[in-house]
């Protein structure tokens, strides 16, 4: 699985060729933001834009996903299973942080219960990420050892823009298969120094950093600490941070009926909402600070305990989109120094 | 100004007139200012006052416990007036530290609401920081965007809102950031009955935004926080402004102006109906 080069023109040809037979997703500029969207032509893609507003998880775990549909007639219920189309899929131009979120999500969706909807899409999808050209002020991916603007975690191929061409690093067999299937478009790798330079520059652009050392130890014992009330005081309890988080994965399943037909839908849900934990007769998280604490502890302790992974990749979306400037890096700093 | 502000805030805390003063501190992203809660005089040292103090802090007065001091721009005071009119707090439980403001910025650009500001000096306050600033009649039409939508054909308008609202991810940042959205249980969160299914799609999104807009009629003072908070950049101001315009035209009522006035939604006193035959 040797590295390759692909010219920018040939990458467009590759995308157009792929889009003929399989589903291709890529960042597309829509209005004033970028969103991962299904594309039919390489012309639609924006590889050099800002980070997408919504994370890559959406392509595997949609906000509202139909699981089954049903019809009722008298006392009979007919259940219709939702079928996936089984098509192969490629994602082109995902950011390394978003790609790194996928192995994190794989843990929870593939743990005791194998979530066929998520896992099936994962299986069918090849991830071609790109080294970030632009880094946002909110980015802090390099605070995590295995993630950076040019990390390969979760990707099958990694492209790095070296001017006329993209340097292509092959990470997995899935990535290799794309090259094998389109070998006429790829050349032998050269200019590795330019690739290294570009990647180093990208890494150096990330200025925001948070020290995670000692965090887990604090979270192991600080559940009742009054600091939670203090640091969460300004949180308004919206779901901008959780919905736009590449690793937040909580959902609610509801049946939606219209006359005699209905569907069972899985929707994103958020620990920030009061009704998230509302049960008949009991509400374990009556106050906002408890909900905020859940978000932090889930990411940096429970997930680590359970899967030995931190459920944060430093994409910075929660910082960028918070209306009251709740900044997870500052929250962590305060906890560590408490 | 900031020294005066800090001094007054400290006085309120040390004399125990209030339990907390809600103000602004420097944020940690871009040049944003961030809400700040001072419980001691020392905490007040964090306070800042500058062009980036956009947030409407009135959202926190219905959440705070005890007596509250609050730094409030003219527009924010309008919200406080609404909250008091609707009996969500007692006037005596809040010390309004009004601040003379000649406009705030979002990402370096003048906030939309500031183009039509008629309250550079707040309508009511207990303490005023800064010299009074006279408000001049704005030469700009505050209902320009509303008119643009109104001038569309019904089909175009339907398409516009369908497309625009299909972007909504129902994170409810618009609701959570709104000082007048204080219901314990929002209509979208009830499950028996469930007014709107949880699924995010054009129909459900439109339903949510329409009901929200109706709930804001005669109550929204146009602070623009819903639009600012929206991560999907949905122009929610247009919906709110449309409701404000309708209420102004029909009921001659403008919210956030007179604390003694009865809001249109409580009064139903139609402008052209002196005998009050409409509803009551």
| Strands of chain B, total number | 7
Q: Give the N-terminus to C-terminus distance of chain A in angstroms.
A: 48 Å
Helix content of chain A: 25-40%
Give the low-pLDDT segments of chain A. Answer: none
Largest interface: A-B, 39 and 33 residues
**Low-confidence residue ranges of chain B:** none
Label the overall shape of chain B: globular
Strand order of the largest sheet of chain A: 3-2-6-7-8-9-1-10
Q: Can you describe this structure?
A:
The complex is a heterodimer of chains A (about 350) and B (about 280). In chain A, β2 and β3 form a beta hairpin. The mean pLDDT of chain A is about 95. Chain A contains eleven helices and twelve strands. Chain A is α+β, with helices and mostly antiparallel strands and about 350 residues long. In chain A, the strands form two sheets. In chain A, strands 3-2-6-7-8-9-1-10 form an eight-stranded mixed β-sheet. In chain A, strands 5-4-12-11 form a four-stranded antiparallel β-sheet, with no helix packed on it. Chain A folds into two domains: about 200 residues, no CATH class; about 120 residues, no CATH class. Chain B is an alpha/beta fold and about 280 residues long. Chain B has a five-stranded mixed β-sheet. A two-stranded antiparallel ribbon of chain B has the order 5-6. The radius of gyration of chain B is 19 Å and the shape is globular.
List the helices and strands and how they pair.
The complex is a heterodimer of chains A (338) and B (280).
Chain A: E1 4-7, H1 8-21, E2 23-30, E3 33-39, E4 64-73, E5 76-81, E6 89-94, H2 96-109, H3 116-124, E7 125-130, E8 157-161, E9 165-170, H4 173-181, E10 187-188, H5 192-205, H6 215-221, H7 227-232, H8 240-243, E11 251-258, E12 261-268, H9 288-307, H10 317-321, H11 328-336
Parallel strand pairs in A: 2-6, 6-7, 7-8
Antiparallel strand pairs in A: 1-9, 1-10, 2-3, 4-5, 4-12, 8-9, 11-12
Helix pairs in contact in A: 6-9
Chain B: H1 2-14, E1 20-26, E2 33-38, H2 41-44, E3 68-72, H3 74-85, E4 94-99, E5 105-106, E6 109-110, E7 127-129, H4 144-150, H5 154-165, H6 173-176, H7 202-216, H8 225-229, H9 236-251, H10 264-267
Parallel strand pairs in B: 1-3, 3-4, 4-7
Antiparallel strand pairs in B: 1-2, 5-6
Helix pairs in contact in B: 5-7, 7-9
């Amino acid at each position: 699985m040797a590295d390759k080069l692909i010219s920018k023109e040939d990458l467009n040809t590759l995308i157009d060729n792929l889009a003929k037979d399989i589903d291709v997703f890529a960042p597309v500029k829509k209005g004033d933001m970028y969103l991962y969207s299904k594309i039919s032509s390489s012309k639609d893609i924006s590889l050099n834009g800002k980070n997408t507003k919504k994370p890559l998880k959406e392509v595997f775990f949609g906000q509202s996903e139909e699981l089954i549909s049903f019809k009722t007639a008298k006392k009979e219920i007919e259940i219709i299973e939702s079928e996936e189309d089984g098509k192969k899929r490629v994602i082109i131009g995902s950011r390394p942080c978003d790609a790194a979120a996928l192995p994190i999500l794989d843990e929870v969706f593939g743990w005791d219960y194998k979530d066929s909807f998520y896992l099936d899409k994962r299986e069918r999808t090849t991830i071609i990420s790109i080294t970030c050209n632009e880094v946002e002020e909110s980015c802090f991916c390099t605070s995590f050892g295995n993630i950076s603007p040019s990390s390969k975690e979760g990707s099958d191929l990694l492209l790095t823009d070296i001017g006329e061409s993209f340097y292509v690093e092959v990470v997995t067999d899935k990535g290799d298969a794309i090259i094998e299937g389109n070998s006429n478009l790829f050349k032998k790798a050269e200019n590795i120094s330019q690739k290294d330079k570009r990647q180093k520059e990208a890494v150096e652009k990330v200025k925001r950093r948070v020290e995670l050392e000692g965090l887990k130890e604090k979270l192991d014992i600080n559940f009742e600490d009054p600091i939670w009330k203090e640091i969460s005081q300004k949180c308004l309890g919206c779901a901008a941070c959780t919905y736009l988080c590449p690793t937040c994965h909580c959902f609610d399943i509801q049946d939606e009926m219209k006359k005699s037909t209905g569907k069972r839908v899985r929707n994103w849900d958020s620990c920030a909402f009061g009704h998230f934990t509302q049960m008949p007769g009991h509400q374990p998280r009556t106050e906002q600070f408890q909900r905020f604490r859940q978000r932090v502890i889930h990411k940096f302790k429970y997930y680590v305990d359970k899967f030995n992974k931190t459920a944060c990749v430093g994409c910075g979306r929660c910082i960028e989109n918070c209306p009251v400037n709740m900044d997870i890096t500052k929250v962590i700093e305060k906890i560590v120094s408490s | 100004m900031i020294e005066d502000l800090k001094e007054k805030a400290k006085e309120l805390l040390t004399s125990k007139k209030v339990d907390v003063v809600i103000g602004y501190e420097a944020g940690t992203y871009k040049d944003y200012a961030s809400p700040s809660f001072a419980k001691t005089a020392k905490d007040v040292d964090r306070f800042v006052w500058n062009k980036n103090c956009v947030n409407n802090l009135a959202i926190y007065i219905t959440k705070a416990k005890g007596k509250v001091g609050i730094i409030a721009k003219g527009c924010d005071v309008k919200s406080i007036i609404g909250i008091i009119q609707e009996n969500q707090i007692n006037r005596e439980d809040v010390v309004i530290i009004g601040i003379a403001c000649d406009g705030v910025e979002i990402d370096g650009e003048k906030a939309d609401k500031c183009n039509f500001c008629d309250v550079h000096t707040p309508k009511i306050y207990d303490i005023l920081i800064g010299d009074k600033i006279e408000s001049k009649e704005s030469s700009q039409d505050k209902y320009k965007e509303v008119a643009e939508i109104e001038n569309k054909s019904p089909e175009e308008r339907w398409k516009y809102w369908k497309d625009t609202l299909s972007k909504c991810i129902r994170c409810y940042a618009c609701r959570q950031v709104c000082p007048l959205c204080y219901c314990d249980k929002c209509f979208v969160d009830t499950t028996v009955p469930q007014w709107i299914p949880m699924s995010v799609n054009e129909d459900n999104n439109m339903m949510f935004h329409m009901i929200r807009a109706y709930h804001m009629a005669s109550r929204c003072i146009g602070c623009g926080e819903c639009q600012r908070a929206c991560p999907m950049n949905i122009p929610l101001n247009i919906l709110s402004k449309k409701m404000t315009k309708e209420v102004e035209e029909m009921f001659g009522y403008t919210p956030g102006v007179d604390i003694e006035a009865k809001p249109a939604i409580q009064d139903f006193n139609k402008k052209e109906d002196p005998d009050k035959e409409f509803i009551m």
